[in-house]
Design brief:
The chain is of the alpha/beta class. The chain has nine helices and seven strands. A seven-stranded parallel β-sheet has the order 3-2-1-4-5-6-7, sandwiched between helices. Strand 2 (28-33), helix 2 (37-48) and strand 3 (54-58) form a beta-alpha-beta unit. Helix 3 (64-78) runs parallel beside helix 5 (113-129) and helix 4 runs parallel beside helix 7. The protein is globular, with a radius of gyration of 17 Å. It binds NADP nicotinamide-adenine-dinucleotide phosphate.
Length: 244
């Protein structure tokens, strides 16, 4: 029987690449996004070629009821979940002294509490089968700290803490929890930097380029799959050597 993955933020960038990777490997994909309905439809057409089932719903990770609805739909369509990829996230560049309380709260509401909401909603399905793999998506800045991204860095560092603690709590239930920590990846999120800065970042990277969404999707897929069956509580950097 085909396996099923739930991916948040699958309409663009890394989440989209993950959806395509899992579909290519024969997994059914349940997904959500915040606003990009058109991108969701295009993705559905692309996934169709792999002959798997695809369910993509508008559901903001800040809305617990909407996330529970996506999980229920996934259960109704696919029976259960085998993996959960908590990818949806936002970024913002601001001097620390300019970060408002609203900026701070929004950052944590999406990047950190969003992960909590998704895992809480999906966990009963994984516990029921005493198996499953959860992959969170942090960031290199959550490991090293990014200047002018204090709230983003803090929200992503918290995801690493959640991942490690949950891995300990869920191990005996047969559920693995790991984190992928991307470096600089060429997606819409990095448009805030501009082409010149992106080139500089590529030059600073030991592998000599910025990452592609598919580079991250390979690591996410590996952590979700049986290939990584004895790996839990780990943070896998996909950063071209930018942070070693
Ligand atoms: P992206 O291109 O901006 O795509 C973000 C995705 O998340 C979109 O599908 C978006 O949906 C969805 N999303 C955003 N807010 C959401 C919300 N409140 N509820 C549900 N979905 C939401 O970003 P990306 O670069 O692929 O980043 C994906 C993840 O990787 C993020 O967690 C990010 O922090 C992390 N990351 C990225 C980089 C990088 O260099 N790009 C580096 C390190 C970590 P819509 O299309 O509907 O807006």
């Amino acid at each position: 029987m085909a396996k099923t993955v739930l991916i948040t933020g699958a309409t663009r960038g890394i989440g989209r690449a993950c959806a395509l990777k899992f579909a290519q490997q024969g997994w059914n994909v349940a997904a959500c996004y915040a606003r990009s309905q058109e991108a969701a439809q295009t993705l559905a057409q692309e996934i169709e070629q792999y002959g798997v089932q695809f369910l993509c719903e508008q559901a903001d990770v800040r809305d617990a009821a909407a996330i529970r609805r996506v999980v229920s739909l996934a259960q109704a369509h696919f029976g259960t979940l085998d993996a959960v990829v908590c990818n949806a996230g936002i970024a913002q560049q601001k001097l620390f002294s300019d970060i408002t309380e609203e900026d701070w709260d929004t950052m944590f509401d999406v990047n950190t509490k969003g992960v909590y909401r998704v895992i809480q909603a999906a966990l009963p399905l994984l516990l029921e089968q005493q198996a499953g793999s959860i992959v969170t998506v942090s960031s290199i800045w959550g490991q090293t700290g990014g200047s002018c991204e204090v709230h983003y860095s803090a929200s992503k560092a918290a995801v690493i803490g959640m991942t490690k603690a949950l891995a300990k709590e869920l191990g005996l239930s047969g559920i693995r929890v790991n984190c992928v920590s991307p470096g600089v990846i060429d997606t819409d999120m990095n448009q805030l930097h501009g082409a010149e800065v992106m080139e500089e970042l590529a030059e600073e990277t030991p592998l000599g380029r910025n990452g592609a969404p598919a580079d991250v999707a390979e690591a996410v897929y590996w952590l979700a799959s049986e290939q990584s069956r004895f790996v839990t509580g780990q943070v896998l950097g996909v950063n071209g050597g930018f942070y070693i």
